[in-house]
Design a protein that fits this description.
Layout: H1 22-27, H2 29-45, H3 52-72, H4 84-106, H5 108-111, H6 113-116, H7 125-151, H8 163-187, H9 191-204, H10 217-223, H11 227-240, H12 247-271, H13 275-278
Length: 279
């Protein structure tokens, strides 16, 4: 066979654990970066306030939560050194990472239908590319969080080293559910409308605006089965030093994030062969 007849890329059916295209994702890493930076540019190119909205959103949310749960309901943050505004702002930061990655990744296939139907590349690149922009927003919000730590004189402790672990759990959990939802959304377009409703309901079942310790004992046992409970609690413990009511919920969240990511990736790759025909 001549050199010109050798195919540049051979597409074969994936099966078993090979359905996780780690090698392909690495080979197409330039495309991943290109799509990620394209998403960031499109988000801020035609906006009036631009990156300021990234800061305003958690600020407004933290202000409302502080008034309702801190001033009116007079719930405790679990630490006398942590005011309710900083407590709710930190909770919203990690929650927004989960919610935005889930929402953007679930719509990534349908939103890029022109690419999916015309050219070949590992389809998982599209959901993964949404992570870059969300983490950039998180970095911007982190600047304001540092300002709040200084204003409220909240010292950093050794628990800050757990911050990357809490973030990794949030990202993996969001991608796991997002990959599964993205595959479903190709066939069932109403998934796009179900995800925002699911996120809103899940937020109130997650200790974003309140501490687990402020709930009755029976409610604490129930909310511990929410995988995001351990993520939010451990994130606030890492940056604010607020106590974690049950460390078992953190261990459960860590295991759930790994299993959800693997399960979501497997379900996504299983449905990938039909994307170009159905979308």
């Amino acid at each position: 066979m001549s050199e010109q007849a050798i195919p540049h890329l051979t597409i074969r059916k994936k099966s078993g654990w090979q359905a996780l295209p780690i090698r392909e994702l690495w080979e197409f890493r330039d495309l991943l970066n290109t799509l990620a930076f394209r998403d960031v540019k499109l988000r801020y190119r035609q906006t009036a306030v631009g990156v300021i909205w990234v800061v305003l959103q958690p600020l407004i949310g933290a202000g409302l939560f502080s008034f309702i749960f801190g001033s009116v309901a007079k719930l405790s943050t679990g630490s006398d050194k942590v005011p309710y505004f900083a407590f709710s702002f930190a909770g919203l930061m990690v929650w927004n990472v989960f919610a935005q990655i889930l929402q953007k990744s679930s719509d990534s296939m349908v939103g890029n239908a022109h690419l999916v139907s015309k050219i070949y590349f590992p389809r998982m690149i599209l959901p993964l590319s949404t992570v870059y922009g969300v983490l950039l927003d998180f970095c911007v919000s982190s600047i304001l969080l540092v300002v709040l730590l200084v204003l409220f004189k909240i010292p950093l402790t050794a628990s800050i080293f757990f911050l990357p672990v809490a973030m990794l759990m949030a990202v993996m959990m969001a991608l796991g559910v997002g990959l599964w939802a993205a595959a479903l959304n190709v066939t069932f377009r109403d998934v796009k409308f179900v995800i925002p409703v699911f996120i809103n309901f899940l937020m109130w079942g997650t200790p974003v605006a309140y501490a687990v310790a402020s709930l009755p004992a029976r409610a604490q046992a129930v909310i511990a089965y929410n995988p995001m409970t351990g993520v939010v609690e451990s994130f606030r413990w890492a940056v604010l030093g607020t106590p974690i009511q049950h460390w078992n919920s953190v261990i459960f969240s860590a295991l759930a994030s790994i299993l959800l990511f693997i399960w979501g990736a497997m379900m996504f790759q299983r449905a990938e062969r039909k994307f170009a025909d159905v979308i």
